[in-house]
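Model it.
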Amino acid sequence: MRYLDKFVDLSAAKLDESQAREELLVSQQSIEKARQQVALIPSYEQRLNVANAQLTALEMANAKEVIALQRQLFAGFCRMFCGSNYVGSASE
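Modeled.
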């Protein structure tokens, strides 16, 4: 086979092969990086769920505080303008 290779110019084919190998190496590196990133998805999802739960808890706590303040304001308004005490309490 080497004898026949002397009569055929293989430099273009060798260059093509070298370029294909380089592209394959780059592709393999990209695939490995993508695999590593995909492997991180469950931990990111878990962190997101924890953050959402914390946010919901904070919103609920803040909502209770806002309702209590609204009730206090309404009770003060009733005492000033209605001449009666508001039946509800801030602890409800």
